[in-house]
Structures are given as C-alpha cells and as structure tokens.
C-alpha cells in the first residue's frame, strides 16, 4: 500500500454569530480595502470583494465598541511599508493597536475603565502617522501614540463628549458633539492640548423653535417639507435653549462634509441638516415625510457632494446634491430666480432593498469604501454583513421630466484623462467615474458630446452570514483515517436553537450546508457515516412533563431527512441522549423516565425496548472493542474453502489470486449489504453508581458483569472509553481513570463541579481527554493522568462554554454563549492566526498581506507595464530575482485581480497618468491617489495651454500660472487647489445661498463682508442698507454703504483709504482692513497682510477669488514655502499647491529631496510626455537624478530589468548603475550560458 502522508491542517479560527448591541458602532472600511467589524470581544477582518472573513483578532476581554483602520495618506517605501494597522477599543476602556497580518498587538492602551466613546487616527500627513485621538468618558479627550502606547496629552471639557469629527480640510479644526450641543476647537495640534475650552454652540432641536418660523405673505400654504425648512432657519444659537428644547436634542451624528470646506452635517432621526459653518446657518435639509422611515446614520462622500443614508428598515439610500444650474428645458420658462438657489437639495438617486426587521434583527451601521465610494457594507445585528455595490446603468431616452430630477451624466474621462476612442475602461470604478460634477450656475449646462445619461442602482454583490443565537450542540464528523483519506472533509455539525443544523467545512470556515431539520431546539447530533448523521430535538414539556421527541436521520449530499423512529415520539418522556456504537451499527436512545431503546442503525429497526424494571441510566458509552476482524477472518476462510472446491487443483495456482480478489470484493459488498453483524458492548451506570455491561450481537442482547459503585465517586454524569482506558466523571467534579488491562482505578478530584461531558481525542494511541464543566473546560492526558490545559470563565475568558468536541487529534472546538464557535489549539488559548497561513477558498487582492518588498515590487510591476514592449500579468516573464515562494505570492495577488482590471492594465491605450491613478486606487494609497489626481489634471491643462501659446526664449511658457480651461475641472473637494474661475463661481454661489438663508443681523453682516471681498459691491450695498434704525451699527453700516458706492480711483482717496486700512490692521482689526483694501483693488496687499498675520488659508482663498493669475501665483508660492517650513511640515500639501501653479520643475526637485523616488521618476516622465518639461541643460540634472534613483530603488527590490530600463533613460547619471547591472548579469549568467547572449538580451530590453 502507498504510504499516505496527509495533513488536514485546520487553522485555529472563530466562527462568529450575532453582534452585541455594544458592537453597533464598531465597524470600519479602511483604505486598505478591508472591513473590520467588532463581534462581542473579537474583531473580524472581512474582504468585501470575495466576502470572506480572513482574520479574527482576539485579545479584548470586553465588547469591542470602536474599530479604526489607520490612514494610508503617506508615501509608501521600504521604510514605511504597506501594512495593515488597526486600532480597536472596548467597553472596558482598553485600546489595542493591531498588526492585522500576524494577528498580534503592537501596543495596549488603558486610561479609565469606561467604554471609549470615539477614536480616530490623526490625518495631518507629514506629522507622525501613529497618533490616535480617543474620547474617554465622560469628558476627556486624550492623544496617544499608537505605536508605543504613550500618552501625549489629555484635556477635559465641561460636558459629556459623545463623539467628534475632524475637519478634512484643516487639521487644526475639531468638532465635539456633546450632550448639550457642539464644541468647536480651532487650535487642535498634536504637540499640545487645545488651549481654550472651544466655542460652544447649542443646537435647538428642529421642532422646538416655533419662534423662528417666518410668516410667508400671500404664498400658497407651505407643505410639510417647507414648514420644516422654515423651522430650521436658525438652529444654532450661542445661548442655551429653553428647557423643553434641550430635552429634544436628539442629534444622532455630526460629521464635516469631505466634499466642500466648512460644511457640516447634523443627523436627526427625521432630517439631515447641512450647515455652513461660516454663517453657523442651515443651508440644506433632507427631511423625511411623515410616513417615511427614520434615519440611523448618514455617510457623506468626498468625491461628489452626496450622502449615503441608512434607514431603520435597513434600506440604504444615495442622495446627490442637485445641480444649481437650471436644466435647459427649465431655463426657457421664467422660473422664480429666488427659487433657483433656495438651498442645497439632495435628491434621492438610488435605494437598495430593505431587510425584514424583527426584535433580534435590526440594521446597525453602514460603512462606505473610502477609495471608490461606490460600495457600501451594512452590518445587521444577527451577524450578517450585506455588501451592496452601486452600478451606473446607461439610459436610452431622457429621464421622464415628471420625476423632476435633473439627469445625471457619466464623465467622459477615465482616471482623470479623456478616453481614447477604443480604450477599455471600467465605468463603475468609483463614484466620480460614474457620475459627473454637479454643475454650477453660470456654467453652460450644454451636454458635452459623448456623455451618457445614467441612472444608479444598488446591487447586492456579497453576503456574509453568522451563526444564529446560541444554544449550540456540536459534533465533529468521524475522524480522518487511511481509508477515507481521498474524500474526507472536516465537517462540523452545529445544532441550533431554532431546529436547524448548520454544517461547516473547517478548512475554509465556510458554511457547507444549512438544513432545516427540526421544529424545536436541537439537543444532540451523532454522525453515522462521513455523510449522514442523526440528530434529536425535544419540544417544551406539557403539564404532565411529556414532550414531543424528534429523532431525524439526515443524508448530507441529498439533504433528505426522515423520522428515524417512525411515528413514535409524541407525548413521551424527553430523550436525554443518543449514542451510536463504534462500528455505526447500533444506536441507544436514553429517555428521562423511561427505559432505553436499542435500534439497528443500518436497517432502522427497533431491536429491543427494555423492560419497565430496567435501571435508570445516568451515563452510557459504547466500547471500542468488537469482533469484526475475527468474523471477517472466519468468513474469508469459509469462502476460500468454497473456492478451492469449485476449482480443480491443477488450475488452482493460476486462478486462486483472482478468485480470492473476486471473493474479497463480494465480501466487502456483502458487508455493505449488512449481512455481517459484529458483536459490540456498551457500559452504563445507574443512579447508585453501579456499572452494567451489556453485549449486543445481531438482535440478541446479553447482560454481562456488574461492577459495584466506587465509594469515592458521587452520581456518575458521563463516561468515555478508548482502548484500555475508561474514564468516569461525576456531578461533584471527580474523574475516575480505569486501566482495564492492569485492572487499576484512580480517582482524581478536580474541584470544578459537575463534569458535563468527556470526550477522547481521535487518532490511534492518542489518549488525550477533553472535559467540560459548567465553568469551562480542561484537557487531560489519561496516560500520565495529569491536566494539560485549562480554560475558566472569568479568569481566562469572558464567555461561558456551551458544548465541546475534538475536531482533529490536536485541536478542540468550543461553542460559547457569546454566539461564537472557536477552533483552538489543545492549549485552548484563544489566539488570532497569521493571515498568510490560511488557505482561503477565493484568493484575496490585498497587497498589504505581502512582505514590504514584495508589495513595492508588485506596485512597480503594474506601473511599469509594458515590460520590454509586451504587456503581461505574469511576474515570471520579468527579470526579477527573488525567492520563488515570494514570487508565487505576488503572482497569486496578480491572479486575484478581476478580469476587467487586468484587461484595462494590459490595454496599450492606457496612458501613464491613468495607470498611476488606477494603481493607486488598487493599492488604496491615499497619498498617491491625491497626488496623481491633481498632477494629472494640471499636467493636461498646462500642456493644452502650452500648445496654444508660443514659448518665449526662456523655454518657460508665458502661460505659467494660467492653465487653459480644460474639458473638466477638479472637484470642489480639492478646495483651493481648484482652478480660480471655478473656485470663484462656487464661492459666489455659496454667498448667494447664505444670503437667501440669513435670518439675523449677524448673518446679514457676514454676507455683506463676503460680497465685498468677492467684489460684488452692488449687492453688498443693498444688504448694508437693510440694517434697521434701532440697531447700534445702523450709522456705521449706512456710512459704509455710502463709502462703497462713492469710491473712485482718484489718487488721494485711494491713499487715504490705504492708510486707514493699514492702521486698522496694525490695531488688530484685520478683517476690516482687508475689506477696505479689497474695495480699492489692493487685494494683493490684503493677501500679504493676511499671510503676515498667519491667516494662510484665508489669503489663499482671497487670492483665488480676487487676483489675476500672476499675482495669485506669488501669493500661493509664498503659502507653499510656508507649508514646507519645519514648524508646519506639510510638504505634501505644498507639492499639491505648486502643481496647481505649474511649477513642475520645483515639484520634481521636492519629490526627490523627500526621497519619493518612484513618484518623482514617474512624474518627470509624465511631464516629458506632456511636453510641459523639456530636456535641456536646466532640467537634465533633475531628469537624471530622478530616473537613476528610481533605477536604484528597483534594483534594491530585485527588478533588474526595470532598473536597466530607467538607468538607460537617465543618461549620464545612470551609466555607472548600468555597468554594475551588466557585471552582475555577466557573473550570474556564466554558469548557464555565455555572457554575450545574456548581455545581448538585456540590450534589447533597454532599447
């Protein structure tokens, strides 16, 4: 026989079930592309593309209340690699920072013992990436170093803090949602705690402010939504609202909008308010009609001004902000101009199906993919995770005008670049490739050619379901043997409280089958072959104490189940246990107050129902010994004798072997036909502890010897028997080990109370024993009679054990009352596993799982396509020296990419910028994505401008600083990085909106100030003249209005005003002085003053809206220098600012000086391709340095072919490197083939 070497290696894993209420907020979708979710005290890591759980982290003792992935907004290199880092916080106040791949904790943090209310990683990128801000109840915020676990500072506030939100545009702004209102902090920094107590504002509940409804004269009666709108005109007040208003403060959530600066979202059960923080004023409301379903959560998007909302019925809706530009058909009719920009309206564009909400099943949270923002995951309390994807469907005809929604168009560009005529692309790559910009008024909404009108739909692309609620009954299928090795599957049957049996495959941890077998709680399961089992369930007892017993026979492959005991089972005492004999021939059914029954499993017949005077059974076990082998021998002998008689002696020798094999066949078949009945025995104990021994053969049952009770034992609760060892456990926690060969018995008190269950481990000669108590479990070695490991509730773990079993000879499986089933090593330490040791059923795309070198290699491999002129997705075709094992892992990652993405990456039409953007999306690299989005936009716009203008002698285009208006513009979420014209229009529109919404003198004054800065003097004068006569500033405002209207550009008046302005600024009235300077068109000076006084953002804003390109370019360059200074240290932001100015040479130099070699080389290459940089004496140094450094980087990760290519592009700077590469090639190549061939091959590649 061939010696089999098989290793069914089951990974330790946790099958999780329902989610605790405290886990409600513990879910996060990271830039790394994975979802982390708290489930009781464990954390699941889920891959949303293949919907598999790929890691379970266990170390918390209390329920996990928050999880947060660290941000990826830094440049990745060998020193700061792609790594999976996650922070989790529990209800006992402990925070753990994890290295998810290895399943180990970086550090543990503990301050108080109350549940952490909220936490987040700091995002200001060039600062340390390890800083974690947490809210420790009731009123502390603490900044931690998440790498070392040290506390940097701690600050307390007057009210209880519920949650916080960082301003995505300004790292020094933080808003805290407290029990009374909102606290705005404007001086947040990692170096010291905020100095002030912050600016407090109170939120009056939307329904509690009837005073603010303003009477609408001669208008049609307002509808419900209009009424709500008028009510929320003023919501934010600086004084405390009246007592009734406070009680109604039910704000569920506060978040800054990542799509536009200074806007915030407040969520109430029946409405979402959008606030403009400059005015502290509501500028938009999403209200639900009376019959609608209330909100639970809203997630604002960054790529488009859109909101994902979760409702109480589990429905996810997507609402997109309506374009303010009138659509062409409306523009014809004279619409009310007031109406056009009344407020921000978020139109419902798509919604997914709701779930059935019951007492135990309700939606908890949604998370949105931060990279693409087109996928949502919904966590349901029963442990399900539903993965929804947003798809754009092209519409044939124009949308029906009756719906009143303006059409959505898909953009023409792919990855920031207009599509080539026959280029492959992925339309649903991300939210901003699915729907175009929302248009602004003043932009002609003419439909550009090639734009497709689309509608959005949600599609369910994945579902993870957990275990149902406990109790559970576990049983592992029969163990692996040499006979069943070819078709063995490690299946675990789990009986549940609702009567169904779940069968899990433990190699993958996935549900193999779910069978609805019973109508009440499953009490026990026994396998009778590798593919079939018996399970029993008992209903609740009636007033006589009788129940309905169900004993079902289930065949797994077909799912057929039938009642094993026929029509017996109604109104009888409950079944206590069922036990199947070792050869799976007989079954004993033990009842509570009724003698036991003995059945033949193979024929399904009742062999014996014991007499009324039969003793009451407390524990029972079948003996592993039987006489099958001797029976077979006898049978074989008889058969052989028959064969000999039929065949004559002469022929015997030639025929014998074949005949015997025929007979052996017949023999094994007849064994299947159950003609052979072996003798088996079982032992049981009665209430007095007496041990009975009973033999069963065929349908005869014989009573054997009886052994009197052992005085040291109490009432026996369970028995286990393997080989020559018999173990009895009693209700007082004593274990009695019998050695049947040596006839010795030994009692060991464990002092752990009732022994609930004992089971021997599978495998020949494996004498380990698993014991279950009410408060935990132990593993014993019966040879040595000593305990190997122990698990105790409250000491090592927080959960109670419900059932136990062995799943292999060295792993146990435990079901616990937190709804989980854990496969553990024999030591029973709950442990996370290394992700790379697991075999997943579907391969997962996640470069973060690779070693740091390998992840960078994979990135370079995708970025530098085509390799030596051909496109390939096979790493072995590239000259890359690395261990085969690592190559294999990289190849697995490449294979797991979807076919769409592979075809796009191998499409020759995909240009360098698109490739860089696509790869940064695939890697979830936040900093790359931001850099390439801005770079690709401005490279194209400057290259267009350059084609239109003639360069002067300097080689620098005249158009520096003034990009030509390209077909698209950067989204407004890039704020001051957008083109000036677009930015200006956005600001005008915003002021217009603020003006419509203003409701108090303060608001009017702010609007007038903004209008003056924007140069809208006429409108500003109108607002200034609105001031009522009893207002103290009435006189001042009237004079200001006169001043604004009469300003002339005569010399003397200008110089006077300038002098006054300068004095004002010197005396601390910065804003007023800047206004005066803007009135006399001295905005350049105004910007300079703002910068001198540290108002850098305000200066950039003003430069964008008021200055001509050359002037604004100076202001922004100064800002970039300030950002580079060591005390600010935001070089990556500075680079983005320089990109918008077209200072590409400077950007290249900065990237090099920051050692971002890969980014620098690719960027310079793109500049050369787009003709915005020319190879001349000034640029050659930069080009050479960038390319040769990148070549060195590629050589350091082993990619020689790539290194040679870039070194050859680097000109003089790369020659030395090329020579080194050639020498290395030559020395390595000699053993196999001549160096000339090898070099020749390389030279071809270089060309």
Automatic annotation (TrEMBL):
Pfam family, one: TPR_WDR11
Domain WDR11 TPR: 998-1169
Organism listed in the record: Clupea harengus (Atlantic herring)
GO biological process, one term: animal organ development
InterPro entries: Beta-prop_WDR11_1st, Beta-prop_WDR11_2nd, TPR_WDR11, WD40/YVTN_repeat-like_dom_sf, WD40_repeat_dom_sf, WD40_rpt, WDR11
Gene giving rise to this polypeptide: wdr11
Keyword Ribosomal protein applies: no
Compartments (UniProt record): Cytoplasm, Cytoskeleton, Cilium axoneme; Cytoplasm, Cytoskeleton, Cilium basal body; Cytoplasmic vesicle; Golgi apparatus, trans-Golgi network
Protein name listed in UniProt: WD repeat-containing protein 11
Residue spans of biased composition, Basic and acidic residues class: 1225-1236
WDR11 first beta-propeller domain span: 22-317
Ranges where the record places region Disordered: 1225-1247
Domain WDR11 second beta-propeller: 489-829
GO CC aspect terms: axoneme; cytoplasmic vesicle; Golgi apparatus; nucleus
The entry's keywords: Cell projection, Cytoplasm, Cytoplasmic vesicle, Cytoskeleton, Golgi apparatus, Nucleus, Phosphoprotein, Repeat, WD repeat
């Amino acid at each position: 026989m061939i010696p089999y070497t098989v290793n069914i290696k089951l990974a330790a894993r946790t099958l999780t079930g329902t989610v605790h209420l405290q886990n409600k907020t513990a879910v996060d979708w990271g830039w790394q592309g994975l979802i982390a979710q708290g489930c009781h005290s464990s954390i699941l890591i889920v891959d949303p593309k293949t919907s598999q759980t790929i890691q379970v982290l266990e170390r918390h003792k209390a329920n996990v209340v928050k999880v947060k992935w660290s941000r990826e907004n830094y440049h990745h290199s060998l020193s700061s690699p792609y790594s999976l880092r996650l922070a989790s916080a529990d209800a006992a106040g402990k925070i753990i920072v994890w290295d998810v791949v290895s399943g180990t904790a970086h550090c543990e943090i503990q301050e108080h013992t109350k549940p952490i209310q909220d936490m987040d990683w700091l995002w200001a990128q060039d600062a340390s990436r390890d800083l974690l801000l947490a809210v420790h109840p009731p009123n502390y915020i603490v900044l931690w170093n998440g790498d070392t676990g040290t506390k940097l500072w701690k600050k307390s506030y007057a009210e209880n803090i519920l949650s916080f939100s960082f301003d995505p545009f300004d790292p020094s702004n933080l808003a805290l949602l407290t029990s009374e209102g909102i606290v705005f902090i404007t001086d947040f920094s990692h170096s010291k705690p905020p100095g002030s107590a912050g600016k407090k504002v109170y939120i009056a509940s939307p329904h509690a402010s009837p005073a603010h409804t303003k009477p609408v004269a001669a208008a049609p009666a307002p509808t419900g939504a209009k009424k709500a709108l008028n009510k929320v005109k003023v919501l934010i007040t600086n004084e405390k609202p009246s007592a009734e208003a406070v009680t109604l403060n039910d704000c569920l959530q506060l978040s800054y909008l990542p799509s536009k600066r200074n806007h915030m979202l407040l969520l109430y059960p029946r409405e979402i308010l959008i606030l403009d923080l400059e005015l502290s004023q509501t500028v938009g409301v999403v209200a639900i009609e009376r019959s609608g379903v209330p909100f639970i959560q809203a997630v604002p998007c960054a790529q488009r001004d859109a909101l994902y909302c979760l409702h109480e019925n589990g429905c996810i809706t997507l609402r997109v902000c309506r374009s303010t530009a009138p659509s062409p058909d409306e523009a014809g009719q004279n619409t009310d101009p007031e109406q056009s920009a009344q407020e921000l309206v978020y139109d419902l564009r798509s919604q997914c199906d709701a779930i059935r909400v019951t007492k135990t099943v309700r939606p908890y949270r949604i998370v949105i993919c931060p990279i693409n923002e087109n996928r949502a995951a919904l966590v349901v309390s029963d442990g399900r995770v539903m993965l929804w994807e947003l798809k754009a469907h092209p519409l044939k005809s124009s949308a029906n005008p009756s719906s009143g929604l303006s059409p959505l168009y898909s953009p023409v560009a792919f990855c920031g670049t207009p599509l080539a005529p026959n280029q492959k692309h992925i339309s649903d790559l991300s939210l901003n490739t699915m729907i175009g910009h929302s248009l602004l008024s003043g932009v002609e909404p003419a439909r550009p050619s090639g734009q497709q009108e689309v509608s959005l739909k949600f599609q369910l692309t994945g579902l993870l379901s957990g275990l149902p609620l406990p109790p559970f009954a576990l049983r592992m299928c029969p163990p692996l043997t040499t006979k069943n090795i070819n078709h063995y599957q490690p299946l675990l049957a789990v009986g549940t409280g609702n009567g169904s049996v779940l069968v899990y495959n433990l190699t993958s941890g996935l549900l193999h089958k779910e069978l609805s077998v019973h109508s009440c709680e499953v009490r026990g399961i026994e396998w009778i072959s590798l593919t079939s089992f018996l399970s029993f369930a008992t209903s609740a007892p009636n007033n006589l104490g009788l129940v309905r017993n169900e004993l079902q026979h289930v065949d797994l492959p077909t799912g057929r189940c039938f009642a094993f005991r026929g029509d017996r089972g109604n109104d009888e005492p409950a079944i206590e246990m069922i036990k199947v004999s070792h050869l799976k021939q007989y079954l004993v059914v033990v009842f509570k107050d009724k003698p036991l029954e003995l059945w033949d499993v193979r024929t399904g017949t009742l062999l014996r129902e014991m007499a009324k005077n039969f003793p009451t059974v407390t524990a029972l076990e079948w003996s592993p010994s039987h006489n099958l082998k001797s029976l077979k021998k006898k049978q074989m002998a008889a058969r052989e004798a028959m064969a000999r008689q039929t065949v004559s002696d002469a022929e015997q020798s030639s025929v014998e072997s074949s005949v015997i094999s025929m007979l052996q066949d017949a023999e094994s078949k007849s064994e299947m036909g159950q003609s052979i009945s072996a003798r088996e025995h079982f032992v049981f104990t009665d209430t007095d502890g007496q041990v009975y021994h009973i033999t069963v053969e065929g349908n005869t049952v014989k009573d054997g010897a009886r052994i009197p009770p052992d005085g040291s034992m109490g009432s026996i609760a369970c028995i286990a028997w393997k080989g020559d060892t018999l173990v009895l456990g009693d209700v007082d926690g004593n274990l009695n080990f019998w050695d049947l060969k040596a006839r010795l018995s030994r009692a060991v008190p464990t002092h752990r109370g009732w022994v609930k269950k004992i089971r021997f481990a599978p495998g020949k000669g494996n004498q380990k024993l698993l014991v279950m108590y009410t408060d935990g479990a132990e593993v014993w070695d019966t040879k040595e009679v000593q305990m190997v490991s122990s698990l105790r509730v409250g000491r090592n773990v927080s959960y109670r054990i419900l059932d136990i079993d062995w799943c292999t000879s060295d792993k146990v499986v435990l079901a616990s009352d937190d709804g989980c089933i854990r496969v553990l090593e024999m030591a029973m330490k709950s442990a996370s596993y290394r992700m790379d040791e697991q075999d997943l059923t579907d391969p997962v795309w996640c470069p973060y799982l690779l070693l740091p070198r390998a992840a960078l290699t994979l990135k370079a491999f995708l970025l530098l396509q085509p390799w030596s002129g051909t496109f390939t997705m096979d790493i072995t075709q590239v000259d890359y020296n690395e261990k085969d094992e690592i190559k294999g892992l990289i190849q697995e990652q490449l294979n797991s990419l979807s076919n769409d993405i592979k075809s796009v990456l191998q499409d020759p039409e995909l240009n360098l910028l698109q490739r860089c953007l696509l790869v940064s999306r695939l890697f979830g690299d936040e900093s790359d994505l931001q850099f390439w989005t801005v770079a690709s936009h401005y490279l194209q716009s400057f290259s267009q401008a350059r084609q239109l203008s003639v360069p002067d002698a300097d080689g620098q285009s005249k158009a520096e600083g003034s990009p030509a208006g390209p077909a698209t513009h950067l989204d407004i979420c890039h704020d001051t990085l957008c083109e000036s014209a677009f930015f200006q229009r956005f600001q005008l529109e915003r002021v217009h909106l603020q003006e419509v919404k203003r409701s108090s003198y303060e608001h009017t004054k702010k609007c007038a100030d903004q209008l003056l800065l924007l140069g809208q003097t006429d409108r500003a004068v109108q607002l200034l003249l609105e001031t009522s006569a009893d207002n103290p500033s009435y006189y001042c405002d009237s004079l200001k209005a006169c001043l604004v209207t009469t300003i002339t550009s005569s010399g003397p008046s200008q110089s006077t005003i300038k002098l006054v302005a300068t004095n004002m600024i010197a005396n601390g009235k910065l804003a007023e002085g800047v206004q005066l300077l803007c009135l006399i068109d001295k905005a350049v000076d105004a910007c300079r003053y703002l910068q001198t006084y540290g108002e850098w953002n305000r200066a950039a804003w003003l430069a964008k809206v008021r200055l001509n390109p050359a002037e604004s370019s100076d202001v922004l360059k100064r800002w970039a220098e300030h950002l580079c200074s060591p005390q600010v240290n935001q070089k990556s932001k500075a680079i983005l600012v320089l990109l918008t100015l077209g200072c590409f040479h400077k950007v290249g130099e900065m990237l090099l000086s920051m050692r971002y070699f890969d980014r620098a080389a690719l960027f310079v290459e793109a500049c050369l391709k787009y003709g915005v940089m020319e190879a001349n004496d000034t640029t050659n140094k930069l080009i050479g340095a960038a390319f040769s450094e990148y070549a060195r980087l590629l050589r350091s990760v082993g990619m020689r072919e790539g290194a040679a290519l870039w070194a050859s592009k680097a000109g003089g700077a790369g020659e030395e490197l090329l020579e080194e590469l050639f020498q290395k090639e030559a020395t390595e190549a000699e053993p196999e083939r001549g160096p000339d061939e090898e070099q020749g091959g390389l030279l071809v590649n270089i060309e």
